[in-house]
Amino acid sequence: MPLDPLILLVASLTLFVGAMAKGALGFGLPMIAIPALTAVGSLPLALSIMVPPVVATNLWQIWKFWDHRHVPFMPKFMLFGVIGLVCGTLALRGIENAYLEVLLGCLVLYYLYSIRRKDSYNLSNDRLNTLTPPVGGIAGAVHGMMGLSGLVGTPFFHAAGLARPEFIFSTSVMFIVFSTLHMPTLAAVGLYQLEGMFIGLLAVIPAFLGLWLGGLAGDRLKATTFPILVQIMLAIAAILPIWNGLSNLLFTP
Hints:
mainly alpha, globular
């Protein structure tokens, strides 16, 4: 099967950069790579490419941070997330993703703006328990439609006030479960592309290189620096889909 060299190059470069962010902060891989890949290919192709590197890199981080797995709200979050994933994948055929990209990016920017105004972001336990099911469901649905669950789940984990090890473990569990289930659900609706799987397998190499370099930097982060860098990364991750969505809406015939 011939592989598109441009898409392979874009996948390798963006996965390397995204994996560096992921190694340091626990997220950033799909949020950087998918907007770039959809700019040179289709969204189903981008989602297909992401499965192998996301599964591989998150398996590594789950193993590395296994001792920090006790996050009380995660089982409920993932249960509703899986339900949302199936619904989102089924909706993928009939929805205009450009509108969702712009909406999600704006919501993340609003979240960042609101926490800067309040100078606080920690949710109370009662609020956390109330929000876990709907946020988990929305994260799964967004992953099913766009592969960008990080734009929903990551701000939620940030607002929960998780320390870096628990934060990275939680994001890794979310990404690996959603990505593993995404492949058969995409295939079930006829959207999974084998070319994407082969490109994704090749891109695992630069992804792991970026993950290793980012991990070295992340291990040296101060506890007070980590949430600030998460906010910066979230801002970048929000701007990319807004730009991509507006480009598709304004310039695609």
